[in-house]
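Intended use. Records like the one below are meant for learning the mapping from a protein sequence to its folded structure. Do not use them to infer anything beyond what is encoded.
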Amino acid sequence: MSETLSSGASRRWLAPITAVFCAVLVISNVSAIKPLSIPGLPFVLMDGGNLLFPISYVFGDVLVEVYGYAQSRRIIWLGFALNIFAAGAFSLVALLPPAPGWELQDAFSSILLQTPRVVLGSVVAFWCGSFLNAWVMAKMKVWMSGRHLWMRTIGSTVAGEGVDSLLFTALAFGGVWPLQLVLQVIFWNFVLKTGYEILATPLTYWIVHRLKRAEQSDPFDVKTRFSPFRLGDS
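Structure written out for the chain above:
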């Protein structure tokens, strides 16, 4: 089981953090359909999901640090389920016949009917990357006795985002986008997401310290079973 420094830990901020985490995932899946270039830097190519998706890794680190791996594991599964639900809903709406006089059906379908493949890549990449991120974060916290938060957030992000960027872009856009574009997006997705985490380190420190005081919680996953397929508290 997870061991905490306080037996009076609360979870009053867990629900809003979970809501933001899951909203970011669903919005990012739709945004990821469009490849973007950075103004003034045409060689930097990424998918539109990069505008928001890195936030999920910041919150993923916060969840493990403040609430523990077991709680983070349940929320990862919730995000996984909501992504699939959103893809099904978008596909159903796109496939149903439009009302008479509505002339945007082709444009609507051309975007949202790509969502199932994007979500397939996203859920596989998210599942692998998020669980790897959470595992590395929790293990490093124990190894480092809770010190060097910056090293843990960056180290876990390098591992998780590396897997996520590779799997998502390859599964979602391989064979759809030119190979050169796919490789460029994989590279820049990883670089930009990891850079985002590094730049967000001061914010992560602030959120973590405020939440630890508010929740009276600082878990160390000493006895936690790290199987991603368990949904209990241990």
